[in-house]
């Protein structure tokens, strides 16, 4: 999609729900913060929604005026530059790019707005005095998911579905597979990626996740973990419909309204505290002490973890004991989790 198309999309979405966010002059002294969503946009029941929860918390608790900007299908870096520039020009501070795809655009726009703090989630490749790199030890949470999957599986075959085959998602795969194998060396881990870059549909299209999950179910998988954004909802649907376990990602997907029909079969979710990372950055700017550089969220600080919302999960005492032991061993340094398969 070209810049003109992106401009049309931006004009409709950049201000989100707050009509005063574009610098109209009303309440101009109020602190303003903005997030630019990743592929799939708000409503993905996962990564983007977690970022929105952080913005909403800042609105509610800090009195911040929040803005949101949605991505356009097939957009390039120029579209992201235009989006971030519009948000910064409107007086938002910080401006947060949700996802590694924003790295080149943030690097460029941050130089043009040195007094604005830019948050870059899931990427450390682009740095600057006014850039906060909000990153997570996804492999650690995924290891715990692997332990849970191995314990819950009755067939000894489990599945991993990655949205797009990029280094970030391979961290999820690596941790998951290691956790499975450390728990049950005989277990089989089926791995499938939905798309290859530069095609990022694997983060956006639920039908791709559903088809991949069905393929793994047909091969005997009875627990499937998907790290695929909005596409992951399709894999959850497939697993749940088949009466098998799904493991969610980024948000506690058991509690996501859009997945309520399948929640009984969402065993657990690997959580990333994207919400608090967004909130903490906004608060730091509002307090006059903006975060900068690498801000890492790991297992030791509950920056990543494993959700226990499903009542059926809480009944699995052997599984919980194994997960708790693995968590302690990772924090104590007895287990080093791989970041690549």
Largest sheet entry: 6 strands, parallel
One letter per element, helices H and strands E, the order comes to HEHEHEHEEHEHEHEHEEHEEHH
Radius of gyration of CA atoms, rounded to a whole number: 20 Å
* Physical arrangement of strands within the biggest beta sheet: 2-1-3-4-5-11
List keywords for this structure.
single chain; 341 residues; alpha/beta; Rossmann fold; six-stranded parallel beta sheet; six-stranded mixed beta sheet; 12 strands; 40% helix; 19% strand; globular
Describe the model.
By secondary structure, this protein is α/β, with parallel strands linked by helices. It folds into 2 domains: 3-136 and 274-300, 3-Layer(aba) Sandwich (Rossmann fold); 138-272 and 310-331, Response regulator (Rossmann fold). The chain has 11 helices and 12 strands. It has helices spanning 3-13, 47-62, 77-89, 103-112, 138-152, 167-183, 206-218, 232-241, 274-286, 311-314, 317-331; strands at residues 32-36, 65-69, 95-97, 118-121, 131-136, 157-164, 188-195, 223-227, 245-250, 266-272, 293-297, 304-306. Strands 2-1-3-4-5-11 form a 6-stranded parallel sheet, sandwiched between helices. Strands 7-6-8-9-10-12 form a 6-stranded mixed sheet, with helices on both faces. Helix 2 runs parallel beside helix 9 (274-286). The longest helix is centred in the middle third of the chain and has 17 residues, at 167-183. The radius of gyration is 20 Å and the shape is globular. Mean pLDDT is 91; it is low at 1-28.
């Amino acid at each position: 999609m070209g810049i003109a198309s992106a401009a049309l999309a931006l004009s409709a979405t950049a201000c989100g729900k707050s009509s005063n966010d574009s610098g109209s002059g009303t309440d101009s002294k109020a602190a303003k913060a903005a997030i630019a969503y990743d592929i799939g946009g708000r409503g993905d029941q996962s990564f983007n929604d977690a970022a929105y929860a952080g913005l909403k918390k800042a609105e509610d608790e800090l009195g911040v005026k929040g803005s949101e900007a949605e991505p356009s299908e097939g957009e390039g870096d120029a579209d992201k530059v235009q989006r971030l520039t519009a948000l910064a020009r409107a007086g938002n501070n910080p401006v947060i790019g949700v996802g590694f795809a924003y790295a080149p655009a943030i690097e460029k726009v941050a130089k043009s707005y040195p007094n604005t703090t830019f948050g870059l989630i899931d990427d450390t490749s682009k740095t600057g005095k006014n850039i906060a790199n909000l990153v997570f030890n996804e492999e650690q949470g995924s290891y715990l998911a692997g332990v849970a999957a191995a314990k819950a599986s009755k067939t000894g075959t489990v599945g991993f579905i990655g949205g797009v085959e990029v280094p970030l998602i391979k961290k999820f795969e690596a941790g998951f597979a290691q956790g499975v194998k450390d728990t049950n060396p005989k277990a089989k881990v089926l791995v499938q990626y939905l798309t290859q870059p530069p095609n990022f549909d694997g983060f956006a299209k639920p039908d791709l996740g559903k088809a991949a999950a069905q393929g793994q179910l047909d091969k005997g998988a009875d627990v499937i973990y998907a790290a695929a954004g909005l596409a992951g909802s399709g894999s959850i649907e497939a697993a749940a419909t088949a009466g098998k376990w799904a493991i969610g990602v980024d948000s506690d997907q058991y509690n996501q309204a859009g997945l309520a029909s399948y929640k009984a079969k969402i065993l657990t979710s690997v959580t990333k505290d994207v919400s608090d990372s967004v909130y903490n950055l906004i608060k730091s700017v509002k307090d006059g002490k903006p975060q900068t550089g690498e801000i890492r969220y790991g297992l030791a600080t509950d920056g990543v973890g494993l959700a226990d919302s499903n009542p059926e999960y809480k009944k699995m005492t052997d599984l919980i004991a194994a997960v708790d032991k693995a968590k302690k061993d990772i924090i104590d340094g007895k287990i080093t989790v791989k970041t690549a398969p």
